[in-house]
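Kindly inspect this today.
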Amino acid sequence: MLLAFMAAGCTTPEVNQQQETIVQESNIKDIEQLNTLLEEEPVLIKFGSPTCAPCRDQDIILDIIADDYEGEASVIMVNINEERDAASFFGVYSIPDMSVIAGIKDDRYLFMGPDGNVSFDRGSTRYVGLTDGNILRQALDNAIAYRQNNTS
């Protein structure tokens, strides 16, 4: 099932030339670490590659978002060249590919859309291609609100 084979463990932050990056390059090997992050806050996860120009452009946007949401949400990037199992598990077919995970319910991920709707279906809430930061912010804001309203 879900806990079978992966988790996000953050390594050294990347640095881009425009600003110091606080988005963490992720090493997904065991689901428990991703689940641990989700115990604390929502996670915006981006699948991409350093050789992908739109992915690098998206990283600039994600750096700003990560800075703005520090302490409220985690932003992680997964290199699909190094973590093929993770890309396969999440059904990545084109990059950049992003999702906001609001939490876990019934051992399944709850994905958040910018409209505030949560779904177990990542396909209905995924962001493929270069995505405007405001759309991702809406999804993160909704995920934060969802968690505040659904935790006891």
